[in-house]
Predict the structure.
Amino acid sequence: MASVDEFLKAPSEELLDHCSREQLLRIAEHFQLEVGDKRMKENIKNIVKANLVDFGIFKAETHVDVPVARSSGCNDGGLTFEQRKELLLLQTEMEKLALEKLRSEAEIKRLHLEESRLSLQSGGVSHTSGFAG
């Protein structure tokens, strides 16, 4: 079992995979993530992973999407009402996180374009800026 301090010093998905539920909650708390303390370990781990990908701590290509049954009902046969409810809530949350990630990526691209535009503008102005003082 990995320690929280070990993970915080050198975050890796491998260490995260070996954390206990309580350790995952402490890691989520460290990164100020709202995961809820009533979730199952696997759900907490997936939420933490998704957020760490968004933060740039983990690479996006190593992020594994959570395999969840869609609301078709065909895979829900053995689940209780509470489990189905939790599953639907998690699906909704994962979809929100995916949308938030797309928005963040679009914002990053917009900021890079703005940076390039400003860089080009300042490049044209830089010839005269040396005479200001």
Residues 1-67 form one domain. Residues 31 and 52 are 9 Å apart (CA to CA). Residues 62-74 have pLDDT under 50 and may be disordered.
